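If your schedule permits, I should be very grateful for your opinion on a structural question. Kindly check, if you would, that the fold set down in the tokens agrees with what the sequence suggests. Thank you for your consideration; the sequence and its tokens are set out here:
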Amino acid sequence: MSTAWSPNAIAAGEFIDFLKLVDAHYPAGTLIRIVLDNHSAHISKETQRWLAGVPNRFEFVFTPKHGSWLNMIESFFGKMAKTMLRGIRVESKEELKRRIMLYPDEINQSPVVFRWKYRLDEIAVA
């Protein structure tokens, strides 16, 4: 029996909290499609149990298991780690948080629009 303190249960709880926010934001009856990676919280028993209570509300589209390059947040955090966090020393958790929060401020000063180069009709589906 899993405990509520397991890392997966905590992550699933946070994911469910996110889904509740999304659910409250959109009108009832609207199908909400979300593109997700294969994190265990996205497919956990806790998540499945919560989704059963809101049938036909969410549709998940999962990226390929070894397609981290498709996950833009993974790219964002990877670039942040390489450019701002590599080799630093911090005195406190608060200092680390402050440094992490500087990154979005800095990149938003000169934003670069991502242009997807592929067209859906050109992508071969296996």
Observations:
- The mean pLDDT is 83.
- Helices lie at 7-25, 40-43, 45-52, 72-85, 93-109.
- The chain has five helices and two strands.
